[in-house]
């Protein structure tokens, strides 16, 4: 059994980016933990406590569909879409804390050049907290893509360049059901963050490597032990 940690800036990023892969890890007997950095809604005008709770319940429902146990889900309280106002060390320490708690061998997180600032800060904090020292349990770090952020970044920035593809054909239905738990966050086609586009991306990523459906990742690090 492997310990897997998903770092997501907002509830729904984890399903959009690697929902099928999460379900696959669970199916294979791995322990999956989720760390949300923000509540994902507080930056919106007119937000009330009930809106925050509603997003939290959506996350719990989505992750239950994927098979993640509630005790392995951590909801952070960093400012939504404003993580850049914080000293980076505060974010890094929060990552270090959960790494110490769950001892992950594998981490999935955001791409470094996503348009969303919270995504970028989360990525930087993960890379800082998980420096490749002999004491670190983290041996693999992968970046996932989030529609309406990863592909919307500036053309002056490096683009998401996937070099790891995970077949999720068997787990597509679970990803689809989990995503529906976040239906209020989805948009009508042809918006990038629509159900149709999410499925089209899974089909494209799969077809690129001869699979029916896949999720794609950019490898940040893989360390193989001598044994």
Automatic annotation (TrEMBL):
<protein>
    <submittedName>
        <fullName>GlcNAc-PI de-N-acetylase</fullName>
    </submittedName>
</protein>
<dbReference type="InterPro" id="IPR024078">
    <property type="entry name" value="LmbE-like_dom_sf"/>
</dbReference>
<dbReference type="Pfam" id="PF02585">
    <property type="entry name" value="PIG-L"/>
</dbReference>
<dbReference type="InterPro" id="IPR003737">
    <property type="entry name" value="GlcNAc_PI_deacetylase-related"/>
</dbReference>
């Amino acid at each position: 059994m492997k310990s897997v940690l998903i770092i997501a800036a907002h509830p729904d990023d984890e399903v959009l980016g690697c929902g099928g892969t999460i379900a696959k890890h669970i199916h294979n007997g791995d322990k999956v933990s989720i760390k949300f950095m923000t509540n994902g809604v507080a930056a919106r005008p007119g937000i009330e406590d009930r809106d925050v709770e509603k997003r939290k319940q959506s996350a719990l429902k989505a992750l239950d569909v994927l098979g993640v146990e509630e005790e392995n889900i951590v909801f952070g309280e960093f400012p939504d879409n404003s993580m850049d106002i914080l000293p980076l060390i505060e974010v890094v320490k929060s990552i270090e804390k959960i790494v110490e708690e769950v001892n992950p061998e594998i981490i999935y997180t955001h791409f470094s050049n996503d348009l969303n600032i919270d995504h970028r800060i989360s990525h930087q904090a993960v890379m800082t907290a998980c420096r490749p020292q002999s004491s670190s349990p983290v041996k693999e770090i992968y970046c996932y893509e989030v529609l309406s952020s990863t592909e919307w970044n500036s053309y002056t920035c490096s683009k998401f360049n996937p070099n790891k593809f995970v077949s999720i054909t068997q787990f597509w239905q679970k990803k689809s059901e989990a995503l529906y738990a976040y239906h209020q966050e989805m948009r009508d086609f042809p918006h990038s963050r629509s159900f149709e586009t999410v499925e089209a991306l899974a089909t494209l990523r799969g077809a690129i490597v001869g699979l029916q459906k896949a999720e794609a990742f950019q490898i940040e690090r893989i360390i193989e032990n001598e044994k």
